[in-house]
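A reminder from the course coordinator: this example appears on the midterm review sheet, so study it carefully.

Given structure:
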């Protein structure tokens, strides 16, 4: 079992920045592919970014447009999502997810463990 706890969400104005963190426990973190997803009210849970075991590979959804950066610190069992130039459309609950696969998957169905989510609200 893997436990994931997100933090760092909040209310920010358009153009502002936030850094989300996700602390993992219960398994070998360095053997988990990590991802961030988001879900706005009435919409599906969408892939935002993913990072490989070592952090050497990452992948982003098109809508990120270079504004977000995913990173991980395997010594702290933590993955981060740095978000800048936030827009109102970025408002959502952001979820951290972990997969035992070596591949970075865009599908939420291929992630094995999920955090409880953290709310990000961008006011215009």
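Designed residues:
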């Amino acid at each position: 079992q893997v436990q994931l706890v997100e933090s760092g969400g909040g209310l920010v104005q358009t153009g502002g920045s936030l850094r989300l963190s996700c602390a993992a426990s219960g398994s070998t973190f360095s053997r988990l592919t990590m991802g961030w997803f988001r879900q706005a009210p009435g919409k599906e849970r969408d892939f935002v970014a993913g990072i490989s075991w070592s952090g050497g590979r990452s992948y982003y959804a098109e809508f990120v447009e270079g504004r977000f950066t995913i990173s991980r610190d395997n010594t702290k069992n933590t993955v981060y999502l740095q978000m800048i130039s936030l827009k109102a459309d970025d408002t959502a609950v952001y979820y951290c997810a972990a997969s035992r696969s070596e591949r970075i998957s865009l599908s939420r169905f291929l992630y094995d463990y999920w955090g409880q989510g953290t709310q990000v609200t961008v006011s215009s």
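The chain has a mean pLDDT of 96. The two ends are 40 Å apart (CA to CA).
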